[in-house]
Design goal:
Layout lengths: L3 E4 L3 H10 L1 E6 L5 H12 L3 E9 L3 E6 L2 E6 L3 E8 L12
Function: One of the early assembly proteins it binds 23S rRNA. One of the proteins that surrounds the polypeptide exit tunnel on the outside of the ribosome. Forms the main docking site for trigger factor binding to the ribosome.
Keywords: Ribonucleoprotein, Ribosomal protein, RNA-binding, rRNA-binding
Pfam families: Ribosomal_L23
Length: 96
């Protein structure tokens, strides 16, 4: 089971990173906090202070086509927000 899917790199997430040393990740919906902690610590070699998880519900989407209005939902996903210990950082761009 792949636990970490990808980091979330939005304006809101980058503000959390700058001010509070917190990072956001999209994770597998079946993963628990202990599995997420082990995956992040092994991948990035950092020590984690705390983890918060959120299940983000999908937005309703509507668009107009030849057949009329088509509506549906964007998929839901699980988000993990981790707080690192003082003085530690994660560099997402070093693997490129």
């Amino acid at each position: 089971m792949e636990i970490l899917k990808k980091p979330i790199l939005t304006e809101k997430a980058s503000l959390l990173t700058e001010k509070l040393n917190r990072y956001s990740f999209k994770v597998n919906p079946k993963a628990n906090k202990l599995q997420i902690k082990q995956a992040i610590e092994s991948m990035y070699n950092v020590s984690i202070e705390s983890i918060n998880t959120i299940v983000v519900s999908g937005k309703k989407k509507t668009r107009y086509t030849k057949a009329g209005f088509v509506s549906g939902n964007a998929p839901k996903y699980k988000k993990a927000i981790i707080t690192l210990k003082e003085g530690e950082t994660i560099d997402f761009y070093s693997n490129i």
